[in-house]
């Protein structure tokens, strides 16, 4: 089994973790954060990508053994859902943020029959908003959503509470606590920055 530290080391090795305490990043949720984890960079780093996708496939098989289909969140979860589905020999699709205004006006892309046991694939969990919207859209279409599989979670209380309130679960390959621990040990960040980042997360 691929360890969480290995995922953290991979993210750090490709420079996917950015620190900007003096000019905070704005997350999709509107939160101002001193740290940003850009998992999209995984796709252009083949060695780390292979490790991450293998770990993702293993986690899905372990945590959701009844899974019949993977559904990626739009847009960041799509590639990871496709790569993991190929390893698991499962069908996949994705859920748009909203139905398209042309063609068949689909919101859910890919053939999914009602009752299909689905796992949602997300790249990153902060407040959990996009993953929960995807879960709800799939349920409305008749899917049985087993849960969420994500590459990374900030472990925010709000995100954890919202996912629980939505009646679902999330399993992540790596969390903020492990990431900043490895980053501090390797000199990627200073110990003071580690404390600042964890304090920021805990106070949200």
Q: What can you see in these coordinates?
A:
- The protein is α/β, with parallel strands linked by helices and 204 residues long.
- The chain has 7 helices and 10 strands.
- It has helices at residues 4-13, 46-63, 76-88, 129-140, 157-165, 176-185, 191-202; strands spanning 17-19, 25-26, 32-33, 35-37, 69-73, 92-95, 108-109, 117-125, 144-153, 170-175.
- The chain has a 6-stranded mixed β-sheet with strand order 7-6-5-8-9-10, sandwiched between helices.
- Strand 9, helix 5 and strand 10 form a beta-alpha-beta unit.
- The longest helix has 18 residues, at 46-63.
- It is globular and about 50 Å long.
Gross geometry: globular
Number of helices: 7
**Main beta-sheet strand count, sense and barrel state:** 6 strands, mixed
End-to-end distance, in Å? 32 Å
Order of helices and strands: HEEEEHEHEEEHEHEHH
């Amino acid at each position: 089994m691929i360890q969480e530290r290995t995922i953290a080391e991979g993210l750090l090795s490709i420079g996917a973790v950015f620190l900007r305490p003096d000019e905070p990043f704005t997350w999709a949720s509107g939160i101002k954060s001193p740290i940003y984890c850009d998992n999209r960079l995984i796709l252009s780093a083949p060695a780390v990508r292979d490790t991450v996708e293998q770990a993702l496939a293993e986690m899905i098989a372990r945590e959701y053994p009844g899974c019949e289909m993977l559904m990626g969140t739009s847009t960041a979860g799509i590639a990871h859902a496709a790569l993991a589905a190929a390893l698991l020999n499962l069908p996949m699709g994705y859920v748009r943020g909203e139905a398209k205004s042309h063609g068949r006006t689909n919101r859910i892309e890919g053939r999914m029959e009602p009752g299909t046991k689905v796992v949602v694939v997300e790249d990153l969990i902060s407040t959990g908003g996009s993953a929960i919207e995807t879960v709800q859209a799939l349920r409305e279409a008749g899917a049985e959503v087993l849960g969420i599989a994500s590459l990374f979670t900030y472990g925010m209380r709000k995100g954890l509470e919202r996912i629980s309130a939505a009646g679902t679960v999330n399993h992540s390959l790596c969390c903020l606590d492990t990431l900043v621990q490895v980053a501090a040990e390797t000199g990627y960040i200073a110990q003071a920055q580690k404390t600042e980042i964890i304090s920021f997360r805990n106070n949200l």
